[in-house]
Design goal:
The protein is mainly α and about 260 residues long. The chain has a domain at about 1-85: Alpha Horseshoe (Serine Threonine Protein Phosphatase 5, Tetratricopeptide repeat), CATH 1.25.40. It is built from twelve helices and no strands. It has helices at about 10-15, 30-40, 45-55, 65-75, 80-95, 100-115, 125-140, 145-175, 175-190, 195-210, 215-225, 235-255. Helix 3 (about 45-55) packs antiparallel against helix 4 and helix 11 (about 215-225) runs antiparallel to helix 12. The chain starts with 8 loop residues before the first helix and ends with a helix.
Length: about 260
């Protein structure tokens, strides 16, 4: 969103043709238009300097939220996402009535989204991106970008689920079944709507069956069939359930 309009074409032409610009005589609006011109010409290094100068020289000006937003955008365009996130957060916190706030909140989340690393690495930025996208959805539920925010939250949750799922696989391979089941359980409960949840629950059931944990396996089988009846492993899980019930009934008969 851009709320300022270049109102003096002659002024713009003069700026474009000038060699050295004396910004000390600019009004706040003129200074912002000059800085925005640098931004639009992809002169991001100089634009950052000018947007910062505006914020310092004109505290309380009507162009401050403009400068704050485009300062964040300039860092974002340069790929300096952590600095961008910082500047967007300042706008959200300090200019609550600004029309830029919805876009700034989205871009704050987007900055952390860009910082989110491959699943094997620390996922602090991933979690922060989810938090900020969710805040955007909660505060601006009718915004056109809500659908994109929801899609990205789902993508990021899949990454977190993949990290825990891969950890579970490693523990299972090392025959640390207790740790493996804990990680599988975390995937199932925390990331139940991701593609890794049915895989995690399937693997957890297989461990429980192997270890003779019949009651636990039957409980997880019931959960699997209720949540994921169309999953590719559902038929196998149902056969396992039938076999466990048969064995359980045989044991009961023998005890009698």
């Amino acid at each position: 969103m851009f709320k300022k309009i270049f109102s003096n074409s002659a002024f713009i032409v003069i700026l474009a043709c000038s060699g050295t610009i004396d910004t000390t005589k600019f009004t706040p609006d003129e200074y912002f238009n000059y800085a925005l011109g640098l931004y639009n010409k992809n002169d991001y290094e100089q634009a950052i300097i000018e947007f910062q100068n505006i914020l310092l020289q004109f505290p309380g000006s009507t162009v401050n939220d403009d400068a704050q937003y485009y300062l964040g955008m300039t860092y974002f365009k340069r790929g300096e996402y952590l600095l961008a996130a910082y500047e967007f957060s300042k706008l959200v916190q300090n200019y609550a009535t600004s029309p830029y706030v919805p876009d700034a909140q989205f871009m704050l989340a987007e900055s952390y989204y860009k910082l989110s690393p491959p699943y094997q690495l620390d996922q602090s930025y991933t979690k922060k991106a989810i938090e900020e996208f969710q805040a955007f959805i909660d505060i601006f539920p009718s915004n056109p970008k809500v659908e994109e925010a929801e899609r990205k939250i789902k993508e990021l949750n899949n990454k977190l689920a993949q990290k825990d799922y891969q950890s579970a696989l490693i523990y299972e391979k090392m025959e640390y079944d207790r740790a493996a089941m804990q990680y599988y359980e975390q995937v199932v409960e925390t990331y139940h709507d991701t593609k890794y949840a049915p895989l995690a629950l399937y693997n957890k059931i297989k461990i429980e069956v192997r270890k003779g944990m019949i009651n636990e396996a039957l409980a997880d089988i019931s959960l699997f069939l209720s949540r994921y009846p169309e999953d590719s492993n559902a038929i196998e899980i149902k056969k396992i359930e039938d076999e466990l019930i048969r064995k359980s009934n045989e044991l009961s008969t023998e005890k009698k």
